[in-house]
Amino acid sequence: MVSSAALKREDALPAGMSLDIQSVSHGFTLEGEHLPVLANVSLKVEPGEFVALLGPSGCGKSTLLRLVAGLEPPTQGSLKADGEAITRPDPSRVVVFQDPTLYPWRTVYDNVALGLEAQGLLRSRKDRIPEALKLVGLEKFHKVYPHQLSGGMAQRAALARALVNDPRLLILDEPLGKLDSLTRLTMQSELLDLWQRAGFTSLLVTHDIEEALFLATRVVVFSPRPARIVADIAVERSYPRHRGDQYLAELRHQLLGLLGLGETW
Amino acid sequence: MSASTTTVDQVPELVSGTGKIGGKLWLGGLLAASAWALAALVTAFVPNSDDWEYGLQLTRILGGVAVILALSGLFLPRLPAVFERFRAKAAWLLAIGLGLTVWELVTAKLGWLPRPFFVPPQALLEVYADEWPKLLECTYHSVLLLATGYLLGAFTGFSVGVAVGWSRLAAYWGQPLLRFIGPLPATAWLPIAFFIFPSSWSASVFLIALATAIPVAILTWSGVSSVGGAFYDVARTLGASQRFLVLKVAIPASLPSVFVGLFMGMSASFAVLVVAEMMGVKAGLGWYLSWAQGWAAYANMYAALVMMALMCSSLVTLLFKVRDRVLAWQKGLLRW
After folding, report:
1. Which domains does chain B have, with CATH numbers?
2. How does pLDDT run across B256-289, given as a tens digit for each residue?
3. Number of Cα atoms under 13 Å in the Cβ half of residue A229
4. What domains are defined for chain A?
5. CA distance A5 to chain B (A)
6. Is the minimum CB–CB distance between B238 and chain A shorter than 8 Å?
7. ipTM of the complex in this document
8. Rounded CA gap, B321 and A64, in Å?
9. Is A108 an 8 Å CB contact of chain B?
C-alpha cells in the first residue's frame, strides 16, 4: 500500500481526485430495526471541484462522507475514486472531522506527523511537517500539547495533519461547526486559500448555507433521513466572493426554500 | 538584642510556617531544635526504669539533630533556595522531636507501656547497629523477589489486557477467565503454588506476578476498549495498519488506565510478598518478621517494619516518577 501511494504521487495525475458515487444506499440496524440513512444517492465530482453537501441535521451526510473515506462499505451501490472502487481508507482521501480529535499524548508536531508515520514516510518526507504547520499558521506551536490550544488552533492543527499527506480529496465533515462565528469566518477564507493553491477536490458537509455558498463551486441539497439528493446547484461566482453579494443572497433564499425554511426569508 | 526583636516581630508568621524569607531567624527551626534537645536531655538525664543499652548513642543522635536544627534556625534563612524547601517542614520536625521525647519517657524512663511488646527508641537503635547487615540482606532479598514477580506480572497483565481489549478472540476466552479468577486473592493459591513449583522462591514469584497481573490486565483491558472510535478513524484515514492502531493509538490512549492498574498491582504485590515470605521463603523482611516474632524479639520486628515501610514507599514513589514521565502530556489535563 505504501508503494502504491508513493507511485501515485509520481504519476502525472491531476492534483484533484474525481469521485463517482452511483446509486448508493446505506443503513444501520438499531435494536433489531433497519434504519435507512442514504436512499439511492448518485453524485459525480470532477477533479478540483469544491462540493458542499447541505441538509438538515442527522440526515446522513456524514455517513456519506464515511463511505467516501472508505471507513465503511455501502449496503448498496458503488463509490469510485478516479475510476477505482473505494474499498478501504487511503491517505489520498483524508477526512477532517468536526472534532479535531488530536491525540492528547502527542505534541502538535507529532500529531501532524501522524499520517507520514503511519505510512512509513516519516524519514523521507519530514520536511512536509513544518510546511503544513506554516500553511495553517501554527509554526510556533509545534511543541505544544493539544489541550493547550484553542478550538480554532486545534482545528487548524487537524487541517495540517490532513494536508501533510498531500491529499487529492479533502473530506470535510463540518470542520468549522464547533468554532465561534468569527473564527469560523476567518477559517473559511483560509480553507478557500488552501484549496485554490493546492488544487485538491473538496467535499464539505455543512449546516451553514452561507458557508456553503461562500466556499463551494456546487451545493448539493439533501432531504431529511433517509437522505436523497433534492437539488444540485452550481454557484457561478468567481473567488474571492463577497458575503453580501446579491446573487449569493438569491441562492440562499432558494436553498432555504429547498430545506423547508422558505418562509423565514 | 537586635536578634530578639526580630524574633518577636516574626513570631506569628514563623509559627504558622509562613515566615518572611530574608528574616534573620527561622523560629520554626529553633522550636524543633528545642524539642530534639529535650528528647536528648530526657534520654541522658532521666533515670531508666530498666537496663537499656545504647542510651548514650541515642543521646548523641538526638543532640546532633538538635544542633543541626539550631544552626539551621540561625543561618538557613540566608540561603533562600534551601530555606524555601525546609521551611514548611518545621511543624513535622517539631512533632517528631516531641514524639520521640514522649516515646522515650513512656518506655525506657517510666515503663508505662507493657513490655516486651513496646520498646524504647534505643532498643531500635541497638537492632540497627547490631543487625544492619542482616536487615540489608533481607531487604535485598525482598526487593529482588518483589521486582521479579512484579515486573513479570506487570508485563503479562499488560499483554493480556491489550489482547483482550483489542482482539475478539482473546476477549471471548480471556474475559470470562479474568472475571472468574480475578476476584480471587492471589494468596488463596499459596498452598497449591508451594506444592506445584519446584522452590518456594519460584512459587512466590508466581504469586506476586499473579497478584500484579490481574489488576493490570483488567485496567489495561478497560483502557484499550474505552478508546474512542474517532481516534481509530483518524489513523485509518491516514493509512494506519492494524499494528499501528494497536501500538500508536490503543496503547498510548490507554496508558492512564494502565497506570491505575500498576498502582493497584503494586499494593497487591506487597501483601503477597509479606505472606509468601512469612509462609515459605527463607529470606526477606517478611521472613525476618516472623523469625523475630518466634524469638519474641519485638525491637527487631519494629526495625524490620520500618525497613519494609521504607521499601514499599520508595517503590511507590518510583512508580509515581515513572508515571509522571510517561504521562507528562496529562499535566495540563489533571491536577495531581
Report:
1. 2-113 (no CATH), 122-329 (1.10.3720.10)
2. 999 999 999 999 999 999 999 998 888 899 999 9
3. 19
4. 13-92+168-264 (3.40.50.300), 102-166 (no CATH)
5. 10
6. yes
7. 0.85
8. 47
9. no
